[in-house]
Amino acid sequence: MRGGKSMDGSGSGSLNEFIARLDAMKDLVSELDKTILDIESRDYLLDPPKKWLRDVEKYLAWRHQIELTAGFALANAEEQLSRVQKLVEKCGPKVLINKELARS
Predict the structure, then answer these.
(1) Which of 18, 43, 72, 73 could form a disulfide bond with 8, CB atoms 3.0-4.6 angstroms apart?
(2) Degrees (nearest 5) of the Cα angle 17, 6, 62?
(3) Helix and strand element counts for the chain (H, E)
(4) Which band of pLDDT confidence, cut at 50, 70 and 90, is reported for residue 57?
């Protein structure tokens, strides 16, 4: 986060707006790639933004994977807490678990 700005660089905005900006920049790179005739100049000018855009795409893929993993862990926690809650409702607050039997 640079200069106190959020992920999208503006300080606000949704993920959909961020992706729309990414798509617009990819379109612009493609247009400029076709427009600039000199290969060396084109590579010099466009390689850095192309790299940044590839990085952004990787970050978004990681974000998706993190959300999937976090969702899985959260569902497991919810399921376990539901079981514990039912056990406490059934057995009361003095519930005791034999740890040796619970492990087997």
Answers:
(1) 18
(2) 75
(3) 3, 0
(4) very high
